[in-house]
């Protein structure tokens, strides 16, 4: 028996109904903020991710699903591990940034070769949002405010804590990195193995090491905040002040660095205490250099010989599996039956039954009308019992002769005979 690949999950109907419900709530909030939906490919050139995310990150170093296609020479391709790189590629390729400030969102599967566990899978799903073209701190605050409203709509407002940090500009971060490396090099014997390795590959990631011994050494390390320039400090202060004006609480986490190289200035995470070590449900930040960087390496097919001007962006992604785990734990969705009205028809008059159900669907778009195949009425009634329908319509020869239908109230089992068009009027039956 061939089974699904480890870390790749089927989402079965009961669960999938919750996904649809969640996605509808999130999409609604996004449209209320004027964000537009975009659909992007799942496969991109490997180079795009290597350049955008950074060669020394966990994702590019060890988590990507990469393969060569059958072209000659083969093109190195990768299943997308995240959405920002592809979104940036698309807005460059389609010239969407010229004089405009697109605000976009997308949803779909991402792929990372990680050790599967609760809240961590190899195929998982993100809702991603990217706001392009504004370097001003209101763009950062708007994204955070929007997620805040999403938590409120989902009943999760009290479960989420907002953590904030500023990474400053690239050169400020580099100066800090040098100072951190100088400080830690003396003490490298006391670092955990991962952090020792990162000292040469990606030193900032040492800051979010989970090892207590490493954290103890970091207590006296130089602070990133002391390396930020005036502009970065003012930008961050303005983001915080907008959040305060909006009444959104935050914590400053000076060790929040994020695992992707493209961030500058604001970075943020929404974390929960309810999901163990998979605590981050939503994460994002600003990436003012990424568009220029991808343009200058010719990642786009857009022909432009104009000088590259700074084209800022800020975005976030939320992990939908983690979000659903949290919803399940603290504010589960009300289960909804997949059907309101079940139509059971005697096999000899089954075509009248189909006709009745079809007509009902035209006349009552508010009702979900289900039928079973033309087996015995008894077998169909069993299916009606299981369907969750509030009402079953029964049609046999007698009903056709009398121009009636029989209806069975599934909550109390009472059966009665009513006019054939009884359900066509909205007043007679409400699914609620
Ligand atoms: P983590 O530190 O948990 O590995 P990350 O920093 O790698 O997360 P991002 O790349 O920022 O995560 O992705 C944004 C969000 O996507 C995460 O906060 C999380 O909710 C979700 N996510 C990331 N990787 C996975 C995964 N393998 N399985 C399920 N959800 C994931
Ligand atoms: Mg990760």
Structure description:
- The longest helix has 20 residues.
- This protein has 432 residues and is of the alpha+beta class.
- The chain has two domains: 259 residues, BirA Bifunctional Protein, domain 2 (2-Layer Sandwich); 91 residues, 3-Layer(aba) Sandwich (Rossmann fold), CATH 3.40.50.
- The protein contains 14 helices and 16 strands.
- It starts with 12 loop residues before the first helix and ends in a 13-residue tail after the last strand.
- The site of magnesium ion has 2 residues, from loops.
Computed structural class: alpha+beta
Rg measurement, Å = 28 Å
Bound molecules: adenosine-5'-triphosphate, magnesium ion
Helix content: 25-40%
Proportion of residues in extended strands? 15-25%
Relevant CATH superfamily of the largest domain: Bira Bifunctional Protein, Domain 2
Please list the strands of the largest sheet in the order they lie side by side. Answer: 1-5-6-11-10-9-7-8
Order of helices and strands: HEEHHEEHEEHEHHHHEEEHEHEHEHEHEE
Helical run tally? 14
Q: How far apart, in Å, are the first and last alpha carbons? A: 43 Å
Uncertain stretches = none
By DSSP, the count of extended strands is: 16
The 3D shape can be described as elongated
Reported by name, the CATH topology of the largest domain is BirA Bifunctional Protein, domain 2
The domain tally reads 2
């Amino acid at each position: 028996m061939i089974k699904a690949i480890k870390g790749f999950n089927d989402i079965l109907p009961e669960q999938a109904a919750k996904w649809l419900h969640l996605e509808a709530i999130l999409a609604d909030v996004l449209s209320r903020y004027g964000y537009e939906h975009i659909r992007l490919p799942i496969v991109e050139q490997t180079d795009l991710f290597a350049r955008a995310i950074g060669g020394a990150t966990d994702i590019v170093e060890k988590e990507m699903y990469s393969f060569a296609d059958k072209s000659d020479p083969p093109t190195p391709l990768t299943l997308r591990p995240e959405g920002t790189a592809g979104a940036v590629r698309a807005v460059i390729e389609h010239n969407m940034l010229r004089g405009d400030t697109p605000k976009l969102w997308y949803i779909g599967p991402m792929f990372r070769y990680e050790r599967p566990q609760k809240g961590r899978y190899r195929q998982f799903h993100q809702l991603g949002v990217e706001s392009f073209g504004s370097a001003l701190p209101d763009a950062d605050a708007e994204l955070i405010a929007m997620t805040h409203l999403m938590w409120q709509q989902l009943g999760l407002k009290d479960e989420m804590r907002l953590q904030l940090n500023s990474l400053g500009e690239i050169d400020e971060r580099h100066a800090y990195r040098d100072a951190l490396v100088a400080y830690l090099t003396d003490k490298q014997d006391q670092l955990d193995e991962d952090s020792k390795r990162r000292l040469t590959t990606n030193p900032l990631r040492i800051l979010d090491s989970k090892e207590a011994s490493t954290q103890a050494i970091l207590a006296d390390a130089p602070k990133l905040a002391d390396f930020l320039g005036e502009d970065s400090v003012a930008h961050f202060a303005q983001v915080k002040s907008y959040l305060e004006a909006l009444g959104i609480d935050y914590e400053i986490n000076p060790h929040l660095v994020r695992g992707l190289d493209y961030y500058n200035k604001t970075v943020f995470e929404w974390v929960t205490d309810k999901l163990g070590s998979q605590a981050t449900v939503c994460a994002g930040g600003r990436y003012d250099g990424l568009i220029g960087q991808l343009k200058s390496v010719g990642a786009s097919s857009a022909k432009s010989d104009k000088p590259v001007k700074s084209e800022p962006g800020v975005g976030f992604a939320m992990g939908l599996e983690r979000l659903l785990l949290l919803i399940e734990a603290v504010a589960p969705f009300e289960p909804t039956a997949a059907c309101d009205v079940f139509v059971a028809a005697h096999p000899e008059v089954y075509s009248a039954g189909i006709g009745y159900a079809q007509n009902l669907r035209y006349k009552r778009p508010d009702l979900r009308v289900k039928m079973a195949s033309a087996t015995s009425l008894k077998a169909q009634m069993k299916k009606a019992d299981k369907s969750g329908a509030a009402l079953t319509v029964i049609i046999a020869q007698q009903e056709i002769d009398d121009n009636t239908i029989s209806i069975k109230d599934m909550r109390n089992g009472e059966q009665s005979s009513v006019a054939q068009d009884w359900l066509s009027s909205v007043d007679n039956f409400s699914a609620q």
